[in-house]
């Protein structure tokens, strides 16, 4: 069994091996390539002005320790603007103790075991999240999108930000877990 990042639970090695097998050499936005933060995923989020809501969510959910753990992981990190697109009151509910479990699942749905750079993501590729959900990659030239199980699509607007325990791709929309993929 492999330790699951963010979720604080264990996921079958099957998900890890499916992602490893898929790891080979997709709105029209040119992706900005990142660089290395020299820090783990949690500290990288804390230092990013575009991810302050994400970092707060990590703290509220108690997942900062997992985000500091051994990887590698690929994180599709929603920007502040992505969180602001949620319906009014959604984040207020997540900040409450009763919303912690839903917030944890939501965050974990953005994490995939393994390190997938933008060059390794392929059109139509299926990625298994640490919660068991499936994300689908769309690739058209330099534009890469990630679609969740409910059909919501996020565009990667900054790719390949290296952390010591994985890689981060900033996305413009929150990916929503479906009941089966939570």
Quick synopsis:
By secondary structure, the chain is an alpha+beta fold. 28% of the residues lie in helices and 26% in strands. The strands form 2 sheets. Strands 3, 4, 5, 6, 7, 8, 9 and 10 form an 8-stranded mixed sheet that branches. It has a two-stranded antiparallel sheet with strand order 1-2.
* Cα distance spanning the termini: 18 Å
Helix content: 25-40%
Would you tell me which CATH topology applies?
A: FAS1 domain
The appropriate CATH architecture is: Roll
Overall average residue pLDDT: 78
Look at the structure and name the CATH superfamily: FAS1 domain
Find the structural class using helix and strand composition.
alpha+beta
Tell me what portion of residues adopts beta-strand conformation: 25-35%
Unreliable segments (pLDDT under 50, ≥5 consecutive)? 1-32
Question: Outline, from the CA principal axes?
Answer: globular
Largest sheet composition: 8 strands, mixed
Q: Identify the CATH class.
A: Mainly Beta
Rg, Å, rounded: 15 Å
Q: How many strands appear in the DSSP assignment?
A: 10
Order of helices and strands: EEHEHHHEHHHEEEEEE
The total tally of domains equals: 1
Helix count equals 7
Summary keywords:
globular, alpha+beta, FAS1 domain, about 180 residues, eight-stranded mixed β-sheet, disordered N terminus, two-stranded antiparallel sheet, 7 helices, about 30% helix
